[in-house]
């Protein structure tokens, strides 16, 4: 460049550090995913109807990874949760999951 300023630069990506930021369960993204899961679990627990407490007591969170990405799953161990959520012909629906997870 005549009369101008030539500027050049180079950079190196630290792939291990980048993976720690985005994929590690202990990195900031993993922490955010797990914290968001915990908040969702709290909302679902508070919205779950209580007759015997079995449904509310069966709710839990499982943290892990899927294809290297942090994942938080809400787990409902009570087999009757679908009947409560969607209702039956004898019982009206009480949508605690959909209600709690609605944005």
What descriptive keywords fit this protein?
2 strands; alpha+beta; 5 helices; 103 residues; two-stranded antiparallel ribbon; 43% helix
Give an overview of the whole structure:
- The longest helix has 20 residues, at 28-47.
- The protein has one domain (15-101).
- 43% of the residues lie in helices and 16% in strands.
- It is of the alpha+beta class and 103 residues long.
- Strands 1-2 form a two-stranded antiparallel ribbon.
- The protein has five helices and two strands.
- It has helices at 15-22, 28-47, 54-57, 81-86, 96-101; strands at residues 59-66, 69-76.
Using DSSP, what is the number of strands?
2
Number of separate structural domains: 1
Distance between the termini: 54 Å
How many helical elements? 5
Strand order of the largest sheet: 1-2
Helix content: 40-55%
Major pleated sheet: 2 strands, antiparallel
Extract low-pLDDT stretches: none
Kindly provide the radius of gyration, computed on alpha-carbon positions and rounded to a whole number of angstroms.
Answer: 23 Å
